[in-house]
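Run: sequence + adenosine monophosphate -> complex structure.
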Amino acid sequence: MPEQRKFRAIKGTRDILPPDSALWDWFEKTARSVMESYNFGEIRTPIFEETELFARSIGVETDVVNKEMYTFADHGHWGLELIRNQIGYGRMPHGEEAVRLFRMQAQTLVDRWRELTSAGEMPETPENSQAIKRIDVGLIGVSSPIPPAGPGVSALNASALSIMHSARSLKFGDVVTLRPEATASVVRAYIEHGLQMRPGDQKLYYIGPMFRRERPQKGRYRQFYQIGAEVLGTSDAPAIDAELIEMLTVLLERCQIEKYTLLINSIGCPDTPERKGCRPKYVELLRAKLREPEIFSKLGADSQRRVETNPLRVMDSKVPEEQAIIEKLPKISELLCADCREHYEKLKKELTLREVPFTESPRLVRGLDYYMRTTFEITSPILGAQNALCGGGRYDGLVEMLGGPKGIKGIGFALGEDRFIDAIQEAKKIHATRTVDVFIAWMGEQAYPTAVRLAHVLRGEKHTVELPPEEMKFRKALERADKMGARYVLIIGDDEIASDMLSIKRLADGKQEKISEEALVDYFRGAR
Ligand code: AMP
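>> structure
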């Protein structure tokens, strides 16, 4: 008998079930309709990409890339990889039996590898070919019989070590990662399909799951859902930034989330071959300040590390003891270059024109490397510790950095769908449910064909219809319809068939009436 065990969703992931899924559905439809009203079109990209894409764009100094990515080798040879791991990461073989097993496994690895590469199922890179050759040579050195103690044993050990080392270096497939965010994928797709050739700015939105191996807690999951939008094109007009932010506030309004704060900032520009940017100058100043012993000694371990790796992130710190020190640090707004300052001033004017209230937050730097100039975040006090609903910013250099055409600029945001749903539920204004319009209570074999036919007709009219697959007693059927929250019960029994009239019961008040089949469709049209 196979072992009986229960399976559970993996830590940090969860199932979204009816009736809760109705609110998710409502939210996604609402978001689509808002974004489409601003002329954004949907882009669907794969949920996994080359690891390198994320490492390059998000930056290796970020937590996301450093410790939160779900990364794996993309191949279908796990049995062989298991043997490789036993050889490569197992113990050094000692004694006749262990050496025999080791040799057998190494031989299997080489033989299967050759089979698979000649069938084109394994990457035939120079590194892999070298490693297989070294294992081949090593195999000669571990052939039986086992030599007596002395130089023979050392030679055997050296051969075994070389096999182990070479086995470890074999690469079975490309290294891929489940996307931790989607901007990198959108930019990759933009470049791959030459979207710069299409007229005007490309305004794209996406909806889907993202994956980060964070510590799970309320509002923070390892598989979570984001809705995001990106604008890619040659212009960096502040009106683009403002329109994107305005669009978000319209979505918040539709969701009737009133308690939120929009924080904005400009984080300056990076160096380009033509000129020095204001952000690197600021980062250097900040680093110098943070290195001062009286400041450095008051920082926690994370911030101390970031002084060297990514000092901007210190500004982002939520550690209570660090807040007083951070408040006194120089602010980037004081060091913006003339162009960045002008861009930021225009953004604020644009937001005011659109009647979008905002709060300036000189500490808002955003975690990912590719941002520049405009950054923004929307937080909600009703969410608790994980209060960020949405974040975004400008990333003008990213397209070029990922090998795309020069001069293409970009801005985007991503909102956390899980948190939006929490906020909608907290605000208690939207009640999305799915209702059954008509429950068909059929009784008797004669009634069944009519029930099937009418279910089809009503579903064609876009009504939600429940047709019980097996006959139910009338009382039971009524009870079931009531529990489902059905609005009407259509009763088809012997009497109805004999009289050619149907009975309809409205569950809200129990009112029942007779109706002909011809009048049915109109009846429900009116009842909508
Ligand atoms: P980011 O890509 O980190 O700027 O995140 C954008 C938005 O996604 C945040 O403001 C959150 O609302 C949401 N988010 C980020 N990480 C998670 C997570 N682990 N679980 C749930 N939502 C998240």
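>> summary
The first helix runs from residue 20 to 37. The radius of gyration is 32 Å.
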